[in-house]
Amino acid sequence: MAKKKTTRRKKTGIAELRKAVNGPAQPGDPSYRVYRWDQSLREALKERRETLGLTNREVIRAAVAKQLPQLVQQLSELGIAVEDRASEGPARVPMDAATLKALRLASSWTDLPQNLLLQACLRLATRENVQPQKRRATKKK
């Protein structure tokens, strides 16, 4: 049987993320992406752009450079981070209707996947209960 190839994510720290987002701008045309944003965000972006006299691309770049490392660190503290993607696998878990409804609502409010929210809840819950094992005192005679 052939060995299954796994994709291991290179471990990167916040310092490397900061370096990536603060790197030099690439010359040439920007890459365009389509995102679904509410009207209030669009208006705030327009106001910010006009106040600073910048382009959308420059405002977005500055926001990502300033906010993304901090956001990733805070999400990691909340348990929204996966250290090793190669060890991920399916898990069949029992849940009641109320839990599923709560996850569905939270997902729609945050635009984060239900699976990610559930994992964060479980990581936080297990982190609180895990205490370091106390070493047994040895008696010297």
Number of helices: 5
DSSP summary, beta strand count:
0
User: If you average the pLDDT, what whole number results?
Assistant: 79
Low-confidence stretches: none
End-to-end gap: 57 Å
Rg of Cα set? 22 Å
Shape, per Cα inertia axes: extended
What about the largest sheet? none
Q: Spell the H/E element sequence.
A: HHHHH
What is the subunit organization of this protein? Answer: single chain
Helix content: 40-55%
Give the helix/strand class. mainly alpha
Strand content bin: under 5%
Summarize the structure.
The chain has about 140 residues and is mainly alpha-helical.
Brief descriptors of the model:
141 residues, mainly alpha, extended
Description:
- This protein is an all-alpha fold and 141 residues long.
- It has helices at 14-21, 39-52, 56-77, 97-110, 114-129.
- The radius of gyration is 22 Å and the shape is extended.
- The protein is 52% helix and 0% strand.
- Helix 1 packs antiparallel against helix 3 and helix 4 (97-110) crosses helix 5 (114-129).
- The chain is built from 5 helices and no strands.
- Among the domains are: 15-21 and 32-77, no CATH class; 96-129.
- The model has no long low-confidence stretch (mean pLDDT 79).
